[in-house]
Structures are given as C-alpha cells and as structure tokens.
Amino acid sequence: MPIFEFICNECGCEFEKLVMKSSENNEIQCPKCHSSNLEEKVSGFASVSTNGGGGASVCTPSGG
Known about the structure:
The protein is mostly beta strands. It has strands spanning 3-8, 14-18, 38-40.
C-alpha cells in the first residue's frame, strides 16, 4: 500500500496519505480545510536492505 504526498492548492497544507487503491485518490481531502483541490507531490521512496547496509542506499554511477 503506497503512501502518497499531497499539497492542498487551497491552503498550502502538505500531508501524506496511505492509499489502498487508485480509485481512492478521488476521495482524498485536505485534513486542514477539507478541500479536494489537491496536487500529488513527487517524492522519493525508501528501501530496506537486508545485506547489512543498515537500510542505507549505496548507489554508484553507471558510467564508471
């Protein structure tokens, strides 16, 4: 179940919402002003490593 980040276009409130299915995106309202005039924020995600990395991402450039 993905967690999405939203920003309210009415009051500027930023919040996260656990969304069970894509059809629920139409039912989401701002927790502050209850507006449904929302914009989904582009956000990164975290991953958990089981190879002893402590959950930290180890990325190397693909060019060299």
